[in-house]
Design brief:
The chain has 4 helices and 18 strands. The protein has 208 residues and is an alpha/beta fold. It folds into 2 domains: 6-166, UDP N-Acetylglucosamine Acyltransferase, domain 1 (3 Solenoid), CATH 2.160.10.10; 167-208, no CATH class. The strands form 4 sheets. A 7-stranded mixed β-sheet has the order 1-4-7-12-15-17-18. A 5-stranded parallel β-sheet has the order 2-5-8-13-16, with no helix packed on it. Strands 3-6-11-14 form a 4-stranded parallel β-sheet, with no helix packed on it. The longest helix is centred in the last third of the chain and has 25 residues, at 168-192. The N and C termini lie far apart (64 Å). Belongs to the transferase hexapeptide repeat family. Keywords: Transferase.
Length: 208
Amino acid sequence: MFFDDERSNRLRPQILTELVSQYMNDAERARFYGLPESTRVRERVKIISPENLTIGEHCWIGEGAALDASGGLEIGEHTSIGLNTLIFTHSSWLANMTLQNHSGSDLIERKPVKIGKGCFIGGLVVIMAGVTIGDFATVQPNSVVAKDVPPRSLVAGNPARVFQKYDDEYIQSEVERVRGENARRRALAEERGDASSSWGAPAGDFTE
């Protein structure tokens, strides 16, 4: 049933690793992959060539994300990668075009991807090989990132382009807005006798 060749024996440990990891919680899964203890890795995440992945503290990888680190992948601290997001660091395009898409083809191209610290990468995003995403950047869901993203910018679309730039003053105003609104919601929840969340905002309708 199982092949006993070099390629099969090389791939099988990775397959078994992914299978075993499905029975772990997000913190256990991160530790199992040798990632920082503060990083959380959700279900069905696939990491290709994990030995080439460098990731910072307090990162979050969403369900079903595929991280191709075969060409080198760096993710900064406090960055979130949305569910079902695809990050590529290699391409077989030329091998396909020349009918040389066989195992071991020398037409596979690899380029590293670098994602800065404090980034928010939405769900269903595609990041192409060779892209650098600057610190504190936001990539909206369903975007295709084929070019570098400047720091402190919001990009969206296919191909993704810059829609907004933000500075420390804007971020601080948003921090104050969200914390104020969350405090209001928690106070209303307590008045109603609802169980209050220990972090963030309680769920429910809090319109006045």
